[in-house]
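Exercise 3.2. Students should predict the tertiary structure of the chain below and write it as structure tokens, then compare their answer with the key that follows.

Predict this chain's 3D structure.
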Amino acid sequence: MFGFGGKRRYRKAAGKVGVLIHGQILDALASHKKLFQKSEEVAFTSGYLKSFFWSVLNRHGCNDMTLQLRLLRSTCDKVSPGRLWEIYQSGADLADPLAKSYKPGCMNAYELGVTAGLNDAEEGAAANVTPVNLTRYLLGKRLLGPAFTEEDILQLKAAPVAADANLKAKSKEVFSVPD
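Answer key:
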């Protein structure tokens, strides 16, 4: 199917995605200490992680969903051991009407997260910019990108929190989505 070089390339891309996700979560934590308290935040984050990760790995030629899921779990465990993977799984369960833990309203947050992740991956790769929509959602700010209409934002606005006006200054390094 693919050689050792392909798996190494996929792991390298997953590592870069992990750095981007970690940076967004740290930026949100700098302004808001209590993240992932609301089920909508968990659902959004789950959808975001899935689509952002999927988009980047697909661009690198990895279309094996089992391998992608394994790499996602590994990346989540490197970013926040045990916790981020739990958030990913919980968010998927909250948004799945067939799951026991389904919660009404979370499907919309999950789908918005999927759209935000795809938007950040595509816009980041095309324009060489650091993705920010996970941070923006967690801080209750308007999502950026052509994929979002004002109606999307109004329907699923996270509860606003006190956020630093200088959000971009939180990150010292600029990272872009891996090509």
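Discussion points: The chain has one domain: 4-170. Residues 4-31 form the longest helix (28 residues).
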